[in-house]
Amino acid sequence: MAQGTKPMLVGAGRRDEAHVSGRPWRARGDGLLAAVAVAFTLAQLLLVRPSMGLGWDEVVYVSQVAGDAPAAFFSAPRARGVPLLVWPIASWSSSTTLLRVYLAVLSGLALYLSLRAWRHLFPARVLAGAGAFFVTLWMTLFYGPQAMPNLWVAFGALLCVGCFLRARADRLDEWALRGVLAGAVLMAWMRPTDAVWVTLPLLVLAAVARHRRLGAALAAGLVAGGVQWVIEAYVSYGGLRERLNEASRIQGDLGWNLAVDDQLRSLVGIILCRPCDVATPHPAVFAWWFVLPLLAAYALAVAVRAGRTTRTLVPLACATTAAFPYLFLIGYAAPRFLLPAYALLAIPVADALWNLVTAPNGRWRPAVATVVGLALAGHLAVQYVVLDRTVERTSASRLAWARSAAELHTLGVRPPCLLTGHEAVPVAYYAGCGSAAMRGHNVNTTRAELLRTARRLPVGALTAPGRKPPRHARDWELHRLDGLDVRIAPAPVAGDSA
Are 112 and 124 in contact (CB under 8 A)? Predict the structure, then answer.
């Protein structure tokens, strides 16, 4: 091979045209990835309503930097990455629509950059197919414009793993090394524990192969992204071990818990399956879930045969470790938990599909292509139906919170004010009030403190219809809201600050 000539990448016995034909093909490949990213952004804006109100977890994250409501209680498992992500908008605007549009555009850009990190590893058509598969999953579209961390962990995972493989193949690729660092920082900012699980195979590989710079970049990224979380553990939770123990308690005491069936049930559009006692959905909803490992195994077999095992095996390994705690160590399920695993699986799966529908000489296999095309069309239709129903149901519940907040204002519960009880966190944010809890995962007050606050501010205790109120609120004035009961403390005495 002549000096200065790049080696050709081989995929299932075929050469990658992006590396054979020069700049025009590379530009066309980048344009293909950009088209997928733009389509992702537009699909979010069209299918996931930008006007959809903030969810419970979103309220917690956004309220940390918003100026129109007190910050909600920030529990031990959470990290400050999402508040940092939404700060450019939420710090000065209360518009949910503006925030959604901002996040949709930003997630489209993140998709493009994270896929482009793999351009020297797989053909553009494979990467575009991987992107298209990942972003047409209902949970990817649903969380694209939302202030939640899991999709951003997925983007960080794609960036980190792709750049790791590039830096491993070319030790002079400084940009790839920076990509490893950036991807690790992004993951650790969003969810430090997830970042560790995703990068575990990379850390092992770097140590075994003695790639000191790669190992150092990974470690530095994890430390830089997670240092704030660790410092906060000592400042607010009594130490790192105490914060991890508290996080485990909030998540149902992490340990051996088979949650595979819970995750399967949640695929019908249940955004939080806790407890996950719903019926198993129709097989059409979860069939793709069982096809994924088969395609991953086929992709690995193709890679071994083509002599490019590492670049397929590594993302599969990272996807496995990313999914492991949410399948086997936690007692409940949420589809968003597995987004990093789906993102990493998407590339080998897309590679497998391309190798199924094309022969070694690059010609189409019409029969196989037809079957695969019909299967993908059916899969896409199911994903759209689940997404549409999930958006409809979620929008309705969040609109109910907004109506409850408006009714509270008419009852005299206006900022500054405080709400406690059932769904107090989201309703309080919509009303501009603070929220407090005396029990559960968000304990941040006591009965005595609450009663003292009621002498100075409007205080309401929320309960589900028909449920008994807390003892201290039984004599408070009862009002019926939209799906909630509220008991409002007697009006504060003017000038009473005791």
Answer: no
